Every structure is written in C-alpha cells, then in structure tokens.
Amino acid sequence: MSERRPAWAVHLPDGVDPAALDLLAERSLPAAWARRAAAAPERPVLFQPGRGWWARAELEEASRRVAGRLHRAGLRAGDRVLSSAGSSLELAAAHLAALRLGLVVVPVNTAYREAEVAHIASDAEPRAAVVDDGERGAWMRRVAPGEPLLVVGPEVDLPDGDAPELDGAGPGDLALICYTSGTTGKPKGAMLTHGNLLAGAEAIRLAWRWGEDDVLLLALPLFHIHGLGNGLHGTLLAGGAAVLLPRFDAGELLDAAREHAATVLFGVPTMYARLAASPRVAELRALRVLVSGSAPLPPTVFERLAEATGQRVLERYGMTETMMNVSNPYEGERRPGTVGLPLPGVELRLDGGEILVRGPNVFPGYWRNPQATAEAFAEGGWFRTGDLGSLDEAGYLRIEGRSKELIITGGYNVYPREVEELLLRHPAVAEVAVVGTPSEEWGETVTAFVVPAGAPPDPEELLRFAAERLAGFKRPRLLHYVDALPRNALGKVLKHQLSGPAR
Ligand code: MLC
Ligand code: AMP
C-alpha cells in the first residue's frame, strides 16, 4: 500500500486519507465562502487600516449587494470584468461579488501604463471595469471593443438590484483571466477556472494548517495570484481573517502584526530581505508561519530570519497558470534553497531538466489563443513551466533556473523582449539587450545594454522615455552603453556574457 501513497501525502494533517481527498468537494470558492458566512456570520474576516474589521456577514452583504448592482447593470455569467485597484474592503467585496455572479475577473496591475492596460482591455473584451484611478479607467474605455465599457470605483456605486441566485458556478466554469507576459508577442490571458481556484486554495489550506483562528498579514497586491489566489481566496476558504495592507512597509507590517496578533505572513523575497534588515525583525517570532514565494528566497535571508526570529521561512513555488505547485512541509524539514515537495493533488516530473506539472490546479489554457495553449502543454496534459529544476535525494525540488527568458524583480515578472522592443523605438537606440543582474534587495535588477545609433543619448532622457511607457518595475534601473552586443555565429545575442559596471 505504502508505495501507492502520493508524494504530496507528506503535506496532509494527521487523519486526512490521501486516497479519499477531494480538493473540489466544495465545488467553488464562492460556494465555500457562502457556507462559511452562514455558519458563523459574526466572525471577523477582513481588516483595512483606518476602516476597521468587517465580519463575515458584512462581506457577505456587501458582495451580495454589489452582485445585485452588476446584475442590474446587465452583466451575466461569463462576462469579463477588469479589476485594477489598491487593496481595500470594497475591492475584496467587488471581487467576491463578481465570482459569486459567475463573472470572469481580469486583474490588472495598477502600475501598468497606457499601452499595457490597452492590450488587456482590448483582448479580454470586458463589459465592466473596477478601477481606483480615473485615468486608468479612461485608457480602458478608449480601447475596450463593443458597447461603452462600464467603469466603476471599488465601491461599485450603481443602482441597487435584486441579486439573482449566487454561487452557482461549477469547477469547470471560468473565474479569472490573468495576463502574463510571454517570451514572444503580447501578454497572454491565462484562464483559471473555479476548480483551479478552489484546488489551489484547498491545497495550501491543508498543507499550511490554515484555520479559522489564523490572521494573515496581506501586503501583497490583489491583482496577482500570490495576493489574490493564496492570500484573499485562501483566507475565505480557511475561514480565517486577513489584514489588508495597501502597501508594504516593514514597520507598518510589524505594527499590524502586533495589533492584530497575526499568525501568518505571505511575502515575496524582497519583503523578507527588508524585514530581515529591520531592527524590529525579532517581532516576527510571534507568528505561526512565514511563507515566501514568487521568486527564489536567498538562503542568506532564510538564515538571517531563522537566527533573529527562530522562524524557518516556508518557501513554496507556484505560477499564474498553475497556482501553487510545490511547498516545503509545515511539519517536517524545511530545506533552504529548495521549494519542497508537490502540494496535494499535484503531479510533478522533470523533462530534460524542465519542470512539468499536472493536477486540478493547472489552468486549461490561454484566452483565445489555441496556439499558445498547445505549445504550453506536453502530451498527457502536462504543463511546461519553463522553469528548470532538480530533485534531491529526499524528493525536494530545487529551482535551478529558467528555460524561458524572464527577469523576476521584487516578485514581479519582466520579459526582456518587451523592454527591448520599447527601447528600440527610441531613435538613438540601434541595438539593445535586456537582462537581469543580481541584486540583494530585488533578486534581479532590469539592466539594459544599449548600442547607440550615433552619439549616446542622455541616459536620463532614455530612462524617462521608458518610464512614460512601461510599468515602474519593468523599467531598466541600470543602463550600459556598449559598442556591440556579444553574438554567436547565428547572430543570437549571448546574454549570459552581458554584465559589468553600471553607467
Ligand atoms: C516597485 N518598484 C520596483 C518594484 N516594485 N522596482 C523593481 N521591482 C519591483 N518589484 C519601484 C517603483 O517603480 C518605484 O520606482 C519604486 O520602486 C518605489 O515604488 P513602491 O511602490 O513604493 O515600491 P515598494 O512598495 O517598495 O514595492 C516593493 C514591493 C513590490 C516588493 C513591495 O514590488 C511588491 O508588492 N511586490 C510583490 C509582487 C507580487 O505580488 N508578485 C506576485 C506575482 S504572482 P520609481 O522609479 O517609479 O519611483 C507569482 C506567482 C507566485 O509570481 O508564485 O506567487
Ligand atoms: P508568474 O508568471 O508571475 O506567476 O511567476 C511565476 C514564476 O515565478 C515561476 O515560473 C518561477 O519562475 C517563479 N517562482 C515562483 N516561486 C518561486 C520560488 N519559490 N523560487 C523560484 N522561482 C519562483
């Protein structure tokens, strides 16, 4: 019997039989939430600084009210809603309302500039947009095809309407489209179903022993899978509570931890590096678990935190298309430099070093892009992550690198090609190569090597050109002027040879 135990059984709490585990038993996240709200309406669920706590009943009512308004405005199951705002109680309610109504939420990073927003708004063909910035709303309205786009603030200030029956979506129904950049062409919309959201949240709920008494510190934005799928959805499924911090500041986060007796923290390595450097770092000792992901956690940061707080940060590995795949165990050894073992329901294999995954967490494909979808999967439904890995003797996965050209800075992905194409539009740039160079704080820093077309342009002017057109985190932070780019016999740029002092 024992050889039949899947690798992921290591993550299950005592008494949970892997053979009987059904990650989709609750059908959908909104349905699960509705049951939690009915069972204990008075329990706190979300806190926003300056606003206070919402009980489950308040979130239930707010999301029901918003669902009624969106329904009255003509939105129906399957319609897309763009969502682009800083964290707030209202944003959480609007998001939940959309899921409860069967709408498809399309999160959009608030740092995106006009061209980045316009691509998503035209490709997703949304009917509505929830934004906290009028200019962003105008960019969306300008390009969204079809009828005029309904643009509202996070409070969704529309006439009330009767909410239809809510929470009817099944595991196969579409819930989110998350745009991720690609190595070629424009960002693609990764479709995530209600089943994906539920399986993803259920796996980490079990693995990290997430329960009703937990209070999560959530300083990650709600427009990427880390903050949204793990942070907000996980909180709703676990029946726990979350403190929504609209921005990350080590001191404010530690204040909130103390004030609310927080038990769980999710963060990207840049956040942990900053916390490790804080004179107050020892206060993290009071938490139950610190989870890191979205980029590699440097073992030095792991060790510094272990020393200062007694906490062994639990590192896990995921991506937009798959939610969470692999995690160090809650009980058992956490190995720095590895991301651990497959999460409940996840199958993992290596193919020529590339990590392939399969399971109920894995997305069905890219929105209206059968070619990209076909390329993303190997035979048998295995998703090609584009990440390279190896397994140690105990089966722990180590991320060794990437086959895809990707820079991760502060937990945000930057595709070099997008930055290169933008810089090439500047008349003073003849050739350009963009790479990630190591950075203690950011993991990698976006670095551009430019061959000028004639006299080198004023660096400030070139950086400003990029700043006006690209999200801040995608912008080159280091710029080098070079006479030529190193190329192989076929003319391909040898990016690994690019490094050197900053301008
Ligand atoms: C902000 N800036 C960045 C940056 N974030 N530069 C490079 N990389 C980043 N990640 C720049 C801004 O453009 C600005 O520059 C300056 O830093 C200050 O901006 P800020 O907003 O005050 O920055 P700060 O709050 O310090 O942001 C740092 C951060 C943030 C680490 C808190 O980047 C962040 O929230 N990262 C999390 C990203 C995330 O959620 N990733 C999950 C993706 S899902 P200027 O020049 O404009 O003034 C995923 C799957 C998985 O990956 O496995 O989880
Ligand atoms: P995204 O496409 O924004 O969801 O980013 C997903 C990518 O982040 C993955 O393909 C990995 O390259 C990277 N990633 C996420 N978690 C980790 C981790 N713990 N260690 C190394 N890389 C990670």
Measured on Cα atoms, how large is the radius of gyration? 23 Å
Roughly what fraction of the amino acids lie in strands? 25-35%
Mean pLDDT: 95
Largest sheet: 9 strands, mixed
Considering the chains and any ligands shown, give keywords for the structure.
single chain, alpha/beta, nine-stranded mixed beta sheet, globular, binds malonyl-coenzyme A, binds adenosine monophosphate
Give the secondary structure arrangement, pairings included.
Blueprint: H1 29-39, E1 44-48, E2 52-55, H2 56-72, E3 80-84, H3 89-101, E4 104-107, H4 114-123, E5 128-131, H5 134-143, E6 150-152, E7 174-180, E8 188-193, H6 194-207, E9 215-218, H7 225-238, E10 241-244, H8 250-259, E11 264-267, H9 269-276, E12 289-292, H10 299-309, E13 314-319, E14 323-327, E15 341-342, E16 347-351, E17 354-358, E18 365-366, H11 370-376, E19 377-378, E20 382-391, E21 397-402, E22 407-409, E23 412-414, H12 416-424, E24 429-439, E25 443-452, H13 459-469, E26 478-481
Parallel strand pairs: 1-10, 3-4, 3-5, 5-6, 9-10, 9-11, 11-12, 12-13, 25-26
Antiparallel strand pairs: 1-2, 7-8, 8-18, 13-14, 14-15, 16-17, 17-20, 19-20, 20-21, 22-23, 24-25
The structure holds malonyl-coenzyme A and adenosine monophosphate.
Explain what the structure shows:
By secondary structure, this protein is of the alpha/beta class. It has helices at 29-39, 56-72, 89-101, 114-123, 134-143, 194-207, 225-238, 250-259, 269-276, 299-309, 370-376, 416-424, 459-469; strands at 44-48, 52-55, 80-84, 104-107, 128-131, 150-152, 174-180, 188-193, 215-218, 241-244, 264-267, 289-292, 314-319, 323-327, 341-342, 347-351, 354-358, 365-366, 377-378, 382-391, 397-402, 407-409, 412-414, 429-439, 443-452, 478-481. The strands form six sheets. A nine-stranded mixed sheet has the order 2-1-10-9-11-12-13-14-15, sandwiched between helices. Strands 16, 17, 19, 20 and 21 form a five-stranded antiparallel sheet that branches. Helix 1 (29-39) packs across helix 2 (56-72) and helix 2 (56-72) crosses helix 3 (89-101). The radius of gyration is 23 Å and the shape is globular. The relative contact order is 0.10. Residues 180, 225, 293-296, 315, 317-320, 339, 385, 387, 399, 402, 408, 413 line the site of adenosine monophosphate (AMP).
